[in-house]
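Can anyone check this?
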Amino acid sequence: MTIGSRIKEIRVSLAMSQKEFGSRIAVAQTYLSQIENGEREATDKIIILIAQVFGANENWIRTGKGKAFPDPDPAEEVADFLGKALKDENSFKARFISALSRLNESDWEVIKKFAEDLQKKDDA
């Protein structure tokens, strides 16, 4: 697999057209098409931009080793979820998160036991 085909794989996995993808990294659709088809080489600048803008693994783009997208950091996942959930303060998610933030340690123990009991039922 070539660098161009790996770039295409990233674009397709993000469900983006060449025009959309190219505009995010300041590359014309025709130029991106040439890269994906192996008619042109991707410059270091383009590879670095793709990695930065789309969260792709730069090493995978260059070599095919590893994963196209690194495993997300759990703290970043939680922060991203919270940011999205709290945008609408009247949503169930926002109200639920607010309620969780007010729990004391004994409340958390009750929730922990409840979650463990649910898991036992799933394992059975």
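Reply from J.R.: I decoded it. The radius of gyration is 21 Å.
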